[in-house]
Amino acid sequence: MSGPVQNRREPAELTEAEVEAAIARIGERDAGLAREASDVFESLTWGEGPQVLGQAGLQGWLWYVVPTKYLTDEAGYMTRLADAAAVLFDEVGLYRYAEICRSDTTRGVHAGFDESDRAGRTAMAKAMEASGIEPPDLDDFAWGDVMGMTESAARSAVEGGLEAAIVSGRLVVGGRGWRRRQAEVTAATLDGDHPVEPGQSWRTVVITERIQQWVDHADRRSPSLGRLRGHTANQLLHGVDPPAEVVPMMGPVTWFLTEFGQAQPLTQAGYLSPAVVRRLDAAAPWDDPFAVGRPPRTEIDAPIVHRVRGWLQAAGALRKHNKTLRRTKLGAAAATDPVEAWRLLVSNLGAQAWDRFVVETCGLVMLNRNAEISTRELFAEVADWAGELGWATTDQGQRHPPGQPEVSRAFHGVLSILVMCGVVVESGDWGHRRVGLTAGGVTTMLAAMRASATGPRTDPW
User: Fold this and answer.
1) Distance between CA atoms of 433 and 440, rounded to whole angstroms?
2) What is the pLDDT of residues 376-424, one digit of tens each?
3) Can you give the pTM of this predicted structure?
4) Which one, out of 102, 301, 336, 392, has a CA that is 20 to 30 A from the CA of 49?
5) Alpha-carbon span 310 to 307, nearest angstrom
6) How far, in Å, CA of 311 to CA of 296, rounded?
7) What Rg, from alpha-carbon coordinates, does the chain have?
């Protein structure tokens, strides 16, 4: 069985003079085709020369740029452009690229766009995924929908690494275990030496860029919050290890997940059964200041049990299935490993983006103060920043900036979990509460902020 078509030479070996000579030879046969080939080459390289050609760029041009960026109603123009590119690639010895231009995959994507934009984009996404050139997300790194220049360059480097692996045969797309090999090549490229920054890898320069964007995002609209983030930024450049106190801190979580077991029945209303609630409440390793003072009849009568269950479900450690609540693989891992439980906490400080912003920003203030702070002062400061950043809430159909009540609700939604896990301490009476971070809480909040600051961006603002 013959292998895949290979290029006679690679783009880096080509010169512009050789491309111009190839176009001239095409012109001797067909002047119109030569003009089309020249236009195609300029569109693919943006005037930067043949060295920038690559499979990823070609696929992006064939499957996205040609169908969506050319303003024409001419029937068959996509095939005409793809054929012109194929002729040019054959002429310069880039046979593998010519085969992609003429492939059934390219025809299928173009046919999809002829049908509708939605069908075309679906076909394009499938083709990109199946090509093996699309860099996958890793367990510890995800690509952003919106990328800075450094991340975009890193992605291009990974695309080049994947193409080289395919050409050399180290990565056989569609072969046994190819997805694992694709991830290995991606990780190796990300962690390889950066070509310009001494002592840095592609991963570390992307992390640095994302942290700077996290600071800049706040600084553009709220200089005081930007400065506060800036003071913390250097502490987020490297991974944050679990606190030394991780075992006792996460004891309540590991205990709950262990006692919960593999699955528990739910009532018609979706709560844990009364018998399960009473068992958990009676043996719980925490004091519940909101308890009713008698054995609970329902889950609502055991507020901490109710909140822990709800938080673990939102975090993905528990999942509803028919009339039962089941422990997931994530929950099973957290039940036996306090570090996994801690990572679960770090990644789930809020069910929604607003909640996480409030909790992390409150943590940022407490971290900066290095002392307990009045919740009234804390919530007022965070509410001001939220308004400056453009957060809004709707009340009776009217949008307005969040106030202290909205900040308080978001913070208290997870406060009992933070107190239970020894991240936050409370003091004072109910009218004058103060909160502060423990030593383990400082580490936990830094880890949570790093997860947000270095995570993938989903919007440009």
Assistant:
1) 21
2) 999 999 999 999 999 998 876 778 899 999 999 999 999 999 999 999 9
3) 0.88
4) 102
5) 5
6) 20
7) 28
